[in-house]
Amino acid sequence: MSRLDDKLAGLATLSPAQLRAEWQRLYRVPAPRVSVDMLVRGIAWQLQERALGGLAPAATRELKRLAMRAGDDTSSLAAKPASTVAADLRPGTTLMRSWGDRNWSVLITENGLVFEGRQYESLSKIAREITGAHWSGPRFFGLKTAGTKRVKDLAHA
Q1: pLDDT grade, residue 32 (50/70/90)?
Q2: Residue by residue, what is the 3-state secondary structure of the chain?
Q3: CA distance 103 to 99
Q4: 47 or 78, which is more confident?
Q5: Which residues, at least 6 apart from 32, have a Cβ–Cβ distance to it below 8 Å?
């Protein structure tokens, strides 16, 4: 068994007081008032993250987006999250669209979508700004076509 496996297995033998002390050691804050099971899970997560590395940046962005949608306290986040489709795109990606004799662009950032210097939470809101009508933002920017699903969606159908 690896050293990490030994540490994880050893968590089951710790008392609640020992688990709270371990939480304090790992997170450098007092343990929250949660069940012993949740303490074990949080400690196990931190041990694994330190040993194996954290989540991929795209996964972190998606979790932040979901937390904000659920109404969790995410006041530490700098901006509203991107739409689900935009969350699949890498930060730094620029979406382009010609409309009404003009070229329009949207920048995908770590914190969402930037259009004309303003932060937006969805491509559909940006499409509405450009056209004045309700559009599917992903469809407007060519990320999805009418009557078809994204490849990612087909895996869940």
Answers
A1: confident
A2: CCHHHHHHHHHHHCCHHHHHHHHHHHHCCCCCCCCHHHHHHHHHHHHHHHHHCCCCHHHHHHHHHHHHHHCCCCCCCCCCCCCHHHHCCCCCCEEEEEECCEEEEEEEECCEEEECCEEECCHHHHHHHHHCCCCCHHHHCCCCCCCCCCHHHHCCC
A3: 6
A4: 47
A5: 38
Whether pTM > 0.90 for this model: the answer is: no
Residue whose token pair is 């590395």: 53
66-112 pLDDT, tens digit per residue, is 877 776 444 444 443 445 555 567 888 888 888 988 889 999 887 78
Q: 82 is written with which tokens?
A: 């991107």
The C-alpha atoms of residue 132 and residue 128 are separated, in whole angstroms, by 5
As a whole number of angstroms, the distance between CA 67 and CA 89 comes to 19
Q: How far is CA 128 from CA 22, 26, 115, 118, 153, in A?
A: 51, 47, 12, 14, 24
